[in-house]
Specification:
The termini are far apart. This protein is mostly helical. The protein is 78% helix and 6% strand. The model has no long low-confidence stretch (mean pLDDT 93). Its EC number is 2.3.2.27. This is RING-type E3 ubiquitin transferase.
C-alpha cells in the first residue's frame, strides 16, 4: 500500500514537474520571440532613422539648389531690367531725334509751301470742293493709295 501511495505521489510530482517544465519552455519561447521582435523593431528604427537622415540631407541639398536657382533668376531679372531700361532710354532718344527731325522737315515743308505753289498744302474742304465731294463722274481710276479723282485746286 505504501508503494502505491509513493507511486501516486511520484507520478503527481512528475506531472507537476512536467507542467512546470512545459510552462518554462513556453515562457522561454515567448521571451525569445519578444527578444526577436525587439531586435527587429530596433533594426527598423535604425533603418527609419537612417532614411530620415538621408531624406533630410536630400531636402537640404534641394533647398541649396533652389536657392542657387533663385539667385541666378534674380541676377537674370536684374540684368533684364537693366537692359530694358537701357533699351527704353535708347527708344526715348530715338523718338526725340525722330520728333526733332519731323519738326525740322515740317518747318522746311512749311517754308517751301509758303514760297512755292508746287508744294502747297490743301485742306480737306479744298479737296472736297475741287472733286465735288469725290464725285463718281470725276473719278479717273485706282492708284496705289486708293481712288484717283480729277479736280481743279489752283488756277495758275
Amino acid at each position: 500500500h505504501d508503494l502505491e501511495t509513493e507511486m501516486r505521489r511520484l507520478r503527481l510530482e512528475l506531472k507537476q514537474t512536467m507542467d512546470m517544465y512545459s510552462t518554462a519552455c513556453r515562457e522561454a519561447i515567448t521571451a525569445k520571440q519578444k527578444a526577436k521582435q525587439l531586435s527587429e523593431w530596433k533594426s527598423e528604427e535604425l533603418r527609419m532613422f537612417e532614411q530620415a537622415r538621408l531624406t533630410e540631407e536630400s531636402a537640404l541639398a534641394i533647398v541649396e539648389t533652389e536657392k542657387a536657382k533663385c539667385r541666378a533668376a534674380m541676377e537674370a531679372a536684374e540684368a533684364a531690367q537693366k537692359l530694358a531700361e537701357e533699351e527704353a532710354q535708347k527708344r526715348r532718344s530715338a523718338e526725340m531725334k525722330a520728333k526733332r527731325e519731323a519738326e525740322e522737315k515740317n518747318q522746311v515743308l512749311s517754308a517751301l509751301s509758303q514760297n512755292d505753289t508746287r508744294y502747297r498744302k490743301y485742306t480737306i474742304q479744298e479737296i472736297e470742293m475741287a472733286t465735288e465731294n469725290f464725285s463718281e463722274k470725276l473719278k479717273i481710276g485706282e492708284g496705289g493709295y486708293g481712288p484717283v479723282y480729277r479736280g481743279k485746286l489752283d488756277h495758275t
